[in-house]
Amino acid sequence: DGGITQSPKYLFRKEGQNVTLSCEQNLNHDAMYWYRQDPGQGLRLIYYSQIVNDFQKGDIAEGYSVSREKKESFPLTVTSAQKNPTAFYLCASSIRAGEGYTFGSGTRLTVV
Amino acid sequence: QKEVEQDPGPLSVPEGAIVSLNCTYSNSAFQYFMWYRQYSRKGPELLMYTYSSGNKEDGRFTAQVDKSSKYISLFIRDSQPSDSATYLCAMSGHGGSQGNLIFGKGTKLSVKP
Predict the structure, then answer these.
(1) A33 touching B, CB under 8 A?
(2) Is the alpha carbon torsion for A43, B79, B10, B51 positive or negative?
(3) For B27-76, what is each residue's pLDDT tens digit?
(4) B51-59: long-range contacts (C-beta < 8 A, 24 or more apart)?
(5) Considering only CB atoms, which residues of chain B are within 8 Å of chain A?
């Protein structure tokens, strides 16, 4: 079955640590996205990539970094510079930018 | 004015009711309109996808787009407790090479048995 897989489902981070969230898709989609979702805030775009080896900052990129070395993979690193990282993180992909997105099941990150 | 406005609710209805969910938008360039359903602690799933103005029906769900009023709606007929979720509208200017989706903040729906 084609789909988009995020791992882990739950992640705990100590203050000052970097953590990497995994996102893999086997849908042959060109575009991939990372969103952060907080209660009452809706979906906020962190980073997106329309093609391999290229990515763009979204609305809230500070404290985050990404890479797109393979079409299937778009990992997100939450760095120690992100002051309030506790949130639900969603990865998505689409055939092209602006088309309907397929979302992963999310990673809930908690700072302890 | 925000690009996409959506009443967050919560909206509570009895089982069997007709539900109406709405979004307004300000950007007249939007042409592609979507509705997503998100269950608690899950990723959103695409429910309906429409292009330009008009209606689209899929089972108990009907999506309407009124570009002249910059207003989109999702109707759910014979609502079921399993419809209880957050519904997000989304739209983009070009289904193709330009533009990312712009999301509403979501409306939380609860259907009571």
Answers:
(1) yes
(2) positive
(3) 888 888 999 999 998 999 999 998 888 899 999 999 999 999 999 999 99
(4) B51/B95
(5) 8, 32, 34, 36, 41-46, 49, 88, 90, 92-101, 103-106
